[in-house]
Amino acid sequence: MKSLEVNPQFLFSSPIKPESCAVLFGIPTCEEQFMVDWNSKVGKSGCFAEKCLKERNGKPDRHSYKRTFEMFFSQAEITVGQLELLGMTVEREGTLEQFRKLASRPENKVIVLFSHSHKERVEFRDGFYDAGAISLALPIYFNRMIDITVCHTPALANRLSADFLDSVIHHHLWKADPTFWLLSLELVAKLLRSGDCSYPSALTKAVKIVKNGLSKC
To answer: How far apart are CA 133 and CA 119, in angstroms?
Structure first.
């Protein structure tokens, strides 16, 4: 595929700033929307809520919720605000159409897809989509970077890598802990703002720092 925008190797070696990065959340980032999803029992999407909040007698298990998700939503409120303050574009209620729009803007050198997957499909706020549908949402000349974050099967990364040979598709292989990746993403934005870092370099540093920090807790 002929490159019409930037050489993807630029992303590995050249510094970028947060303004060149966009983050789309396909899962809820606030408690209110999480509970709407849970009560709808999938609805438009909702799998993240249904899968992650166990039931007892038909009601949410508050012990499970407190243990896992109070921390996530508390951190999400902080992180989303910090990402916007540092200059990143953030879509809090990310649909597939919003993903398409982000990918169509050449100023977005890196697009972070922060979501959840189930049975080879990825959750957006307007429903689940398989790798083929997500691939079709990208411009045919797409040759920038997509950072697939949190819970994703390799199917999406493999499909996008095959369809967009000039792109950089990053797929996290470490544990699917949304709070961990929120902390890492916030630190990536701070490193990009304060230093001369490429996105991959900042991401590597951020993950290492957050891992070390958690290991000391």
So the answer is: 14
Closest CA relative to residue 134, chosen from 53, 44, 26, 56: 26
Burial of residue 197 (number of CB atoms within 10 Å: 0-12, 13-18, 19+): buried
Q: How far is CA 107 from the centre of its chain?
A: 18
CA dihedral 10, 18, 123, 165 (to 10 degrees): -10
pLDDT band at 51 (very low <50, low <70, confident <90, very high): low
* Beta bridge pairs of residue 59: 56
CA distance from start to end of the chain:
47
| DSSP SS3 for 41 | coil
Q: What is the pTM of this model?
A: 0.83
User: Based on the number of CB atoms within 10 Å of its own CB, is 32 exposed (0-12), middle (13-18) or buried (19 or more)?
Assistant: exposed
What SS3 class is residue 108? coil
